[in-house]
Design a protein that fits this description.
Distance between the termini: 49 Å
Number of helices: 2
Helix content: 10-25%
Strand content: 35-45%
Largest sheet: 3 strands, antiparallel
Radius of gyration: 24 Å
Order of helices and strands: HEEHE
Length: 80
């Protein structure tokens, strides 16, 4: 009777923990050392969903390591 009238405290709802999906943008660049030499692959993970922003972040990271960006090889948005 008390439950029908809303006088009993309701049981706390059980919250299910939803595992958040990991979403990132993987940018692959072909870079060279400042002194030249053969180009090699540089990979950068960006948390941005914008491909342009991710590319700019990757180029900035490559330059911070003393590398010259030669060409953008690939940009992929990955969700795990």
């Amino acid at each position: 009777m008390r439950a029908a009238l809303g006088l009993t405290p309701a049981a706390a709802p059980v919250e299910k923990k939803v595992k958040s999906r990991s979403v990132y943008t993987l940018v692959e660049l072909s870079v060279r050392k400042k002194s030249g030499g053969t180009p090699f692959r540089f990979e950068h993970r960006s948390s941005s969903i914008s491909k342009l922003t991710a590319q700019l972040e990757a180029e900035k990271a490559a330059r911070a390591k003393g590398l010259d960006v030669w060409v953008v090889l690939d940009i992929q948005q990955i969700s795990e």
